Amino acid sequence: MTATLDAPRVRLRTKGKPGGVRIVGSLAVVCCYALCAVFGPMLFRFDPVAVDTRNRLLAPMSHTSAGDLVLFGTDQVGQDLLAKMMQGARVSMTIGISALLLSGLIGLVFGVLAGYFGGPLDSLLMRLADIQLAFPGILLAILIAAVLGPSVTNVIVVLSVSGWVTFARVVRGQVLATKRREYVDATRTLGARHWHIVRTCILPACRAPFLVIAALHIGDVILAEAALSFLGLGTPVTTPSWGTTIASGRDLLGTAWWISALPGIGLAVLVVAFGVLGDALRDRFDPKLAGR
Q: How do residues 9-61 score in pLDDT, each as one tens digit?
């Protein structure tokens, strides 16, 4: 009987933390992309307006007229697709991280204000969020991008405006669940000001859900940037990104499939890695969800 009762306890103690393997694996993929984005353009010199008609439409693992190996082939104007993808990874990840920071900051501020103070301010901010949620996010981004025009800065602004609502609603819910707890009431009773309560009690409680939403949201931001660039509403043609590269090869899928397929596969792997990372972080911060 003793051995039977002790066995489950041993298994529970030796069981690893939820999502550990997925966090390590997804972070490894993201770090590989980050290293390629940072150091790749330094290793492969790339001119987005250069034309080399002698080496156009070379298949992957081919050699140029100068004897150089092109791992991912060349596009219709003779540009090295690997160098183009690395430069595009830098642009896409820069836009994704910048839009994530800006939208996260806006959502955090609005969510804390709405949840902590409540009243008319809460009603105003949440009705504004409801109005924005009534429109599909990508359609709203297309509308704003069409008005502002193609530009890296405009893409960051567009994706930030269309992405703050998720952060605001999640933070507001966490603030509402935290502000009436005993330790918050005790801090308020001791005479602490609102800023001190928010800084020491509210914001630490919002950290875990905020990180989960951020990990899930950055993949959506990168995918939305690629969609805007594919439609010609994102980065300019002279600024390479995965969306513009995929769009440039859509008419050559039958003869030069690698121009669109390889950037598409690279984009899909990165977005899935961020999704797995967000799901694993959710399981880590809330182990009750790990078995569902």
A: 433 333 455 567 888 988 999 999 999 888 887 777 777 667 888 888 888 98
How far does Cα 124 stand from its chain's mean position?
28
Which alpha helices (H) appear in 231-257, and where do they start and end?
242-248
What are the helix (H) ranges across 249-289?
258-285
**Class of the 18-43+73-289 domain?**
mainly alpha
CA nearest neighbour of 215 among 286, 276, 261, 285: 276
Interval 83-117: pLDDT, tens: 888 888 888 888 889 999 999 999 999 999 999 88
- For residue 148, give both structure tokens: 């502002």
190/182 Cα distance (integer angstroms): 12
What are the residue boundaries of the structural domains of the chain, listed by start? Answer: 18-43+73-289
Quick one: which of 163, 160, 166, 138 has its CA closest to 229?
138
CB 72 within 8 A of CB 257: no
